[in-house]
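User: I'm new to structure prediction. If I give you an amino acid sequence, what do you actually give back? Let's try with this one:
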Amino acid sequence: MLKRTLLLSIFVASVFAACSPAEKPVEKKPSQVVHPEWSKNANIYEVNIRQYSEEGTFKAFQEDLPRLKEMGVKILWLMPIHPIGKINRKETEESRGSYYSVADYKKVNPNFGTEEDFKNLVDAAHEQGFKLIIDWVANHSAWDNPWTENKDWYELTEDGNFMPPRGTDWSDVI
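Assistant: Good question. You get back a string of structure tokens that encode the predicted 3D arrangement of the chain. For your 174 residues, that looks like this:
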């Protein structure tokens, strides 16, 4: 009797499974990048705020926007504008650390000016018709970035310590 009940249960379960609606196959569409018209022949100017002028500030760069517009520049690509981490900083007399060792993605580097100075630069650039790109690299940060509170966001050594990117000499980032 137990054997018959078990076989009947398996049979009924199989019938219900066979009668369930089949999943519709997902239509695969080839991905294609569609560039906006304004970008197709636009000149991009990469901006290193720290080394652009003697002052190395947002305000000093902003003064040159009219000249860049005359040159035909359409897009300003700002290298990282964030504070640079202090732990393991690669600093020499010529360099004050790597822009890509970001201490806080929500702040601006105080050496470049204030958040208000940055907003003024963005507003002035937009008023003159520029598009802006901020170079933002999220696959690593400075050792003293608040993100480090979430160790599972990072690659770790076998003993659970932070690990700089493999195959590089980037000891200032993790």
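You can read the tokens as a compact description of the fold. Here is one thing that stands out. Residues 39-174 form a domain with the TIM Barrel fold (CATH 3.20.20.80).
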